[in-house]
Amino acid sequence: MPLVHETDYGTPASTSETMVTLTIDGNQVTVPEGTSVMRASMDAGIEIPKLCATDMMDAFGSCRLCLVEIQGRAGLPASCTTPVAPGMVVSTQTNRLKDVRKGVMELYISDHPLDCLTCAANGDCELQDMAGAVGLRDVRYGYDGDNHVKARNNGDLNLKWAPKDESNPYFTFDPAKCIVCSRCVRACEEVQGTFALTIEGRGFDSRVSAGMHEDFVSSECVSCGACVQACPTATLIEKSVIEIGQPEHSVVTTCAYCGVGCSFKAEMRGEELVRMVPWKDGQANRGHSCVKGRFAYGYSSHKERILNPMIREKITDPWREVSWDEAFAHVASEFRRIQYQYGRDSVGGITSSRCTNEETYLVQKLVRAGFRNNNVDTCARVCHSPTGYGLGQAFGTSAGTQDFDSVEQSDVVVIIGANPTDGHPVFASRLKKRLRQGAKLIVIDPRRTDIVRSPHVEASYHLPLKPGTNVAILTSLAHVIVTEGLFNEAFIRERCDWSEFEDWASFVAEPHHSPEASEKFTGVPADLVRGAARLYAKGGNGAIYYGLGVTEHSQGSTTVMAIANLAMVTGNIGRRGVGVNPLRGQNNVQGSCDMGSFPHELPGYRHISDDATRDIFEKLWGVKISNEPGLRIPNMLDAAVDGSFKGLYVQGEDILQSDPDTKHVAAGLAAMECVVVHDLFLNETANYAHVFLPGSSFLEKDGTFTNAERRINRVRKVMSPRNGYADWEVTQKMAQAMGLGWNYTHPSEIMDEIAATTPSFALVSYDYLDKMGSVQWPCNEAHPEGSPIMHVDGFVRGKGKFIRTEYVATDERTGPRFPLLLTTGRILSQYNVGAQTRRTENVVWHPEDRLEIHAHDAEQRGIRDGDWIKLMSRSGDTTLRALITDRVAPGVVYTTFHHPDTQANVITTDFSDWATNCPEYKVTAVQVSPSNGPTDWQRDYDEQARQSRRIVSKLEPAE
Predict the structure, then answer these.
(1) Residue 508 to residue 503: CA distance in whole angstroms
(2) Most buried one in 85, 248, 301, 582, CB count within 10 A?
(3) Are 734 and 708 in contact (CB under 8 A)?
(4) Could you tell me which of 456, 415, 421 has the C-alpha nearest to residue 222?
(5) pLDDT value at residue 900
(6) What would the DSSP string read from start to end of 28-92?
């Protein structure tokens, strides 16, 4: 198995539809207008030497290696910066060019270390390759004199030399090996959009600098790896390559972090992972990455990973390692006992949004065919279940409408309740590039996120609404569009129900929905709302992207429907550059929903009460499926406390840390008699588990993930499962222990079953995915190549449905006792509950959760930056350190939820969305006060967790 080769064409592809024909080295070549001579040459199979050029960035023309001769033109133009022209005649190799290129290479080599044999980039160094390509055999200039290579010159300190920067945990920066090609600087600017790097100095004194002459880890660098990927030498190189050596084969797979679904080449030596390199042909990420996907994979081999099954009788007992067979037999026996004793509905399962589609499908199948009930739910319950309901009502499908490429054609982008630079950084980089090109931005968020203002990007409007008032702000935006006649009547008459529109329009036009009237709820000045509404309605292609700041509210579903109303009323649906796009939080949260993980739906979002749908699965599975929806996660916990729900299988989720009202979750779990946790680590939920089944990482399995744009991507096994089984095999063996005759031999067979039973997946197979790279559902006879854009010719439900969205204030209110509003979110370096990222070097950037608080609120309470504070709500209290900032407005505080020693969700309440029970994480009334140590609850929690994680040492046989 060789390394996956990617051709670097030197400059980006032209999108022009006009074709140009020219001659290169006697070969006629036809390419799109605007193509560079360098890229046209590569199309003809002619590789021109280059160092500063790469097709991930715009042409730069500084290295002077790619010079060519063009008939009728004086001089030697750089092929990377020279566009093709009709009839152009180009020569890429002449005696004159050979001499010039050798001279250029001599200058580079004269100021470069000659340690090629011991250099980490040996075998993967473009400078080395180009020296060979131009035929360099000696250097006439010698290696004495001014240089950046040696720490001392003739015994004197060399002020041009700089030491290695090893501050970043994942890569090193060696200035001595830098050729100042500027590729790293340009990658940071053009690809990532952070502008953390620069070239300082002039002429021979030029050098790359991070920030204001800082080390990398202290600078604004976000460790996305774009600079490392762009570097043609060993100046910027992964520490893993230095330690392990160059990889010898690679496998294309999909990242297991957020919902962007980036494609990577896992580069290997044997079964050891050397590095993850973003794949340029990945249709979601287009060759870019973030710090998590690029570098934070070390959790898969972390010392805390559990590799053997364990059981215990009581949660106060220590764990005891057992064989797989004993574990499966024990689970089957316990679940049969519980159902016999308490009834069929006394057990259930929770599927994982971190596992593959195939594994998720099997868990819901186990619940329905093995447990014989519909008590199955997924983490989407606590994140994007309102998306499924709201978009299903308005459009007829429970997913976003666009692919990520669509943003390149957006003119106005609205971001509401999302923080893409932290939560979905690769998409954010693509968005920022479009904004730098001139698109306008509207941000609706209580907090001033990075996207509001960053290098060369600034929102036209930031609407800093009070938490919990999303519906009010969106309805007031609609009020302006309707009352000022900015709606798209032709689109509405053709694509939507006109009578429903008229009813909705009369509703939003009522005076109490005006920005002026809504201002007392939202806190947003009316003129900002009116300006934002006009910009979205009149600014061209308008796209809306939203996140958990929309869905995790008591009116989450209403807010999603209000977003759909805005898109329909302006005609921003059904073409490129527009649409409604939920930014999914986990790698396969879309897929877990697609696979039937909700208690009321079978795969493909078909209601459990539909006889024809149930008949399909009943015939295939050979069982009778109940037509009654099962329990949602909150219902399971309530029923457990009440004594009627006693057994739970949890695959790859940590509900004790991720779900709201931690004390209630703990009470529910403690009341159960058999909790089975299937995960990589003893997570927080495992504190209350009776059986632990070790899981496999994304590197150790085959399968598929479905990302936020409905893209089905292959996950490919790159190493053997360290625990012995992939997760789908564990679920299958559990099913077999319970008497089910499953006999899948490969996940491709599971996908074949999904395709045979789910119309939107009808043409999906592993062979087809290997051929296409990836596809976006629906992928069937009507859409054989998938569906990048939804609702092109009409809505799935027929006519788009306008729905009244009356603002109803949450029951969670501030008052004298709890005067502040807490909202929560993520930070770039950490992911979800931190189970993966806390076990990587990412803790360098975020070692603890902090509470962001405005200086006014902090001063009133005598709190200084870095002080320990107590955060209290009606549900509970915890302590953490304060971070004084103006990102949040007075009256609002913010924290992350990545660290279990903080357990931010002990603060959140049990209020939830009216339609889906999605918890209201984003609005909690709190008080903040100085503290001098952990709360009693934290001490008790820590002690319980410590006791729960004890493992009995295995007895070794006597000699």
Answers:
(1) 9
(2) 582
(3) no
(4) 421
(5) 87
(6) EEEEETT-BHHHHHHHTT-PPP-SS--TTS-----S--SB-EETT--S--BTTT-B--TT-EEES
- Angstrom distance (rounded) from CA 184 to CA 277: 16
Question: Quick one: pLDDT at residue 958?
Answer: 46
* Strands, E assignment, 151-262: 152-153, 156-157, 171-173, 197-200, 207-210, 236-238, 249-254
Band (913; pLDDT cuts 50, 70, 90): confident
Q: How many CB atoms lie within 10 A of CB 756?
A: 11
CA angle in degrees (0–180, nearest 5) for 637-638-643: 95
CA atoms of 929 and 533, how far apart (whole Å): 39
Give the C-alpha separation, 483 to 487, whole Å: 9
888 three-state secondary structure: strand
Alpha helices in 315-441 (DSSP H): 324-342, 357-365, 385-394, 420-423, 425-436
- Asked whether the beta carbons of 899 and 654 are under 8 A apart, the reply is no
Q: What percent of the chain shows pLDDT beyond 70? A: 99
- Token pair listed for 801: 């449905």
713-730 in b/e form (b: 16+ CB < 10 A) is bbbbbbbebbbebbbbbb
Question: How far apart are the C-alpha atoms of 910 and 624, rounded to whole Å?
Answer: 34
Cα–Cα dist 683/686, whole Å: 5
- Do the beta carbons of residue 53 and residue 11 sit within 8 Å? yes
- CB neighbours of residue 620 within 10 Å: 13
The pLDDT of 854-875, averaged and rounded, is 96
Q: Does residue 563 have a pLDDT over 80?
A: yes
| 427/442 Cα distance (integer angstroms) | 16
pTM of the model: 0.95
Tell me the C-alpha distance between 66 and 101, whole Å.
Answer: 8
pLDDT at position 954:
60
Q: Which of 914, 874, 807 has its CA nearest to residue 465? A: 807
- With tokens 């520490």, the residue in question is 239
Under 8 Å between Cβ of 378 and 629 = no
Do residues 319 and 345 make contact, with C-beta atoms less than 8 angstroms apart? Answer: no
